[in-house]
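> @MW can you paste both from yesterday?
MW: sure, first one:
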Amino acid sequence: MDRRTRVFLAVGFLVAIVFAVVVSQFASDSPDGLEYVAEQEGFINTAQDHALGNLPLADYGEGLTDNGTLNTAVAGLLGTVVTLIAGYGVFWVARRTRAGDEAAQATHEP
């Protein structure tokens, strides 16, 4: 990987991290569509927490610390990092697969 590509990826990573921490602060405190309808129709009291609802990063990290802003920033940061790592993994596998296909074709051509 040449220097320009590494710089481009590093800057992109930093921009994504800054956006994750800053933009996550604007996440709505309003209930989502399903919760809103449940409130309007009067069956919100029958709702049950998801099995993973007590994990540290559930509900934008609510309960992680006493600082809601920090909780949201950490949840946004970790979500972005996990997404970037998963995306990198997909592209890495795709590149390896393509390189393997090209090598196999080169050995089978007359």
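MW: second:
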Amino acid sequence: MLAFRNLLILIFVAILFYTGAVVAQHGFNLLPVFFGDIARMGWPGQFNLDFLCLLTLSGLWVAWRHRFSGAGVALGLLALFGGALFLSVYLLVESRRAGGDIARLLLGRQQAGP
């Protein structure tokens, strides 16, 4: 679990700095570029569509893990729009709460049992 948590920290730091550099150089103009690449039907668009599907699955998993409660849906939306930046922090916090129990981490406290 320690190696996994270290990976999560590395992912968070890498994405945070990379995002900061991109925003400093290009601003917050993500959506037109993201969906524009998809509309052009090239490899960048294929990657973006694949990534959007992964983000959607991530958001649904987070919301499901919290039984689609109000907080779960809000966290799911954060996962959808926050990507790895959000998910790395979320998994780091939840791995601590799960106490190293991978079933509890993946399924949530309610689904994994006592």
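> thanks! Residues 2-112 form one domain.
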